[in-house]
Design brief:
Layout: E1 3-8, E2 15-18, E3 20-26, E4 29-34, H1 35-57, H2 62-87, H3 89-92, H4 109-127, H5 131-149, H6 151-156, E5 170-171, H7 173-181, H8 183-189, H9 207-228, H10 235-252, H11 268-293, H12 305-331, H13 340-381
Antiparallel strand pairs: 1-2, 1-5, 3-4
Length: about 375
C-alpha cells in the first residue's frame, strides 16, 4: 500500500499520505524513491550543517570532522539495521535478503547511535580529536536528525501506539491492517489494541509525533545549556542521555511495534533508555560536583591535556635555558639587549678576538726585545 489516508480525531477530513516520492525506470532499472529515506536524509543534512557551523566556531579542523562524519555515518546505518534485525531475528532468519531493504523501515535509533559513536571514537584516536567535546557537538545534531527523521515513520505509517481518545489520535487503513495482523503478538505481550474500521475508527497514539517534538524541544534546551551553562567536556552529551532517555523510556511504553528481549514483555529500548538515563544523571551530578570544587577551562576539540602538559614542560625548560644564558652574561658583565642568535654570534667571535689580541701582545714584546738588542750593539760600538 503506497498511499493511504490518515485521519485525526480532531479533524473532519483525512490527509492523503504517500510513502513514495518518485517511481521510475532508468537504463532498464526500476527505481523507487521513498519519503522515508528523503526525510531521514533531510534530517541528517540539517544535523551536519549545524555540526559544521559549531565546528567552525569551536575552531575544529574540518578535515578531521569530515573523516568522523564519513565513517560515523556508515557505521551508524549498519548499526541501526543490525540492531533491529537482531531483535527481529525470528523473521529475518527466514527472510535474509530483506535485511538489506532498509528503505522499507527497520532502522533502530539506538543501534545507529552505538555504531556511530564507536566509529567516532576510533577516528578521534587516530586523528587526534577530543572525543568528549565531539560528543557534545554531536548530541545536539542527534536531536535535530531524530526530530526530523521521525516524520519518515509517519509516511510509512509506523511507530504508532496503543488506542487513545485524545484529539490528536490517529487512524489509517494501513495502521488498522498492521494491528489486525499482529493481534497474536499483542496478546503474547499482555496488551490489546483495537484495529477499528473506516466507519468506527479506533484511534492510536501518534508516538512518532511525540518523539519528534520531544527531540526538537530537547535540541533547544541543549543549545541553551551549551551557550550559557557548559562547564566541562561531555556535559552536553550527558544532558542528551538524560533528556532523550527519559522521553524514549516513556514514549516506548505506548508503542505497538517495540523490540523485546526474547519472549519476555521487557521492551529493549525502554530498558536501555532507563539505563542511559540513570548512568547519565549519576555521571552529570558527579562531574558537576567535581567541577565546582576544582573549576578548569574547557579544552578545545583538537586539544589533549597530556600532550598540552608535555608541551608546557618543554616550553618551561627552554625558558630556563634562556634565563641561565642571560644570568651567565650578566655575571660576566656582558648582558645586552641582543637577540639570542646575535648573542651566539658574539660568543663565537669572542675567542677569535682574544686570540688576535694575544698575537698582537707577543709581537709587541718581540719588537721591544729587538730594539733593546740594537741599543746594546750601538753602545758597544761607541
Amino acid at each position: 500500500m503506497e498511499r493511504t489516508v490518515v485521519f485525526f480525531k480532531a479533524l473532519e477530513d483525512g490527509i492523503t499520505v504517500n510513502s513514495v516520492l518518485a517511481d521510475f525506470n532508468i537504463f532498464g532499472m526500476h527505481l523507487t524513491i521513498r519519503w522515508y529515506g528523503v526525510i531521514i536524509a533531510f534530517g541528517f543534512l540539517l544535523a551536519v550543517l549545524f555540526g559544521g557551523r559549531m565546528a567552525y566556531k569551536w575552531k575544529m579542523d574540518l578535515d578531521k570532522m569530515i573523516d568522523v562524519l564519513i565513517y560515523g555515518t556508515i557505521f551508524a546505518i549498519v548499526g541501526a539495521r543490525l540492531y533491529y534485525c537482531i531483535f527481529e531475528w525470528r523473521y529475518y532468519s527466514a527472510h535474509p535478503l530483506e535485511i538489506f531493504r532498509i528503505w522499507e523501515g527497520g532502522l533502530a535509533i539506538y543501534g545507529g547511535l552505538i555504531g556511530g559513536i564507536i566509529a567516532a571514537y576510533i577516528v578521534c584516536r587516530i586523528r587526534k580529536l577530543n572525543f568528549f567535546n565531539l560528543l557534545d557537538l554531536a548530541a545536539m545534531g542527534f536531536l535535530i536528525g531524530q526530530g526530523i527523521g521521525r516524520w519518515g515513520n509517519f509516511t510509512n505509517q509506523e511507530a504508532f501506539g496503543t488506542n487513545t481518545n485524545l484529539p490528536w489520535g490517529m487512524w489509517s487503513p494501513k495502521v488498522a491492517e498492521y494491528i489486525a495482523d499482529h493481534q497474536a503478538d499483542f496478546a503474547q505481550r499482555g496488551f490489546t489494541v483495537n484495529a477499528g474500521t473506516f466507519l468506527n475508527k479506533a484511534y492510536v497514539h501518534p508516538t512518532f509525533l511525540y518523539e519528534s517534538l520531544w527531540c526538537l524541544v530537547g535540541f533547544l534546551l541543549l543549545y541553551i545549556i551549551c551557550k550559557k551553562y557548559r562547564k566541562f567536556s561531555g556535559q552536553i552529551f550527558l544532558c542528551y542521555g538524560i533528556w532523550y532517555g527519559l522521553g524514549r523510556m516513556i514514549i516506548e511504553g505506548f508503542r505497538t511495534d517495540s523490540l523485546y528481549i526474547g519472549n519476555s514483555t521487557i521492551r529493549v529500548s525502554q530498558l536501555l533508555s532507563a539505563l542511559i538515563l540513570l548512568v547519565s544523571a549519576v555521571l552529570l551530578m558527579a562531574l558537576l560536583r567535581k567541577y565546582k570544587k576544582n573549576p578548569q577551562p574547557i579544552e578545545g576539540v583538537d586539544y589533549f591535556p597530556d600532550e598540552q602538559e608535555q608541551e608546557a614542560v618543554l616550553d618551561n625548560e627552554m625558558e630556563k635555558d634562556e634565563a641561565l644564558k642571560t644570568d651567565l652574561l650578566v655575571g660576566e658583565g656582558k648582558a645586552t639587549d641582543l637577540t639570542e642568535p646575535e648573542i651566539e654570534l658574539k660568543q663565537k667571535a669572542e675567542p677569535e678576538s682574544s686570540e688576535s689580541s694575544e698575537n698582537t701582545e707577543s709581537s709587541d714584546k718581540m719588537h721591544e726585545a729587538n730594539e733593546e738588542n740594537e741599543e746594546e750593539k750601538n753602545g758597544k760600538a761607541d
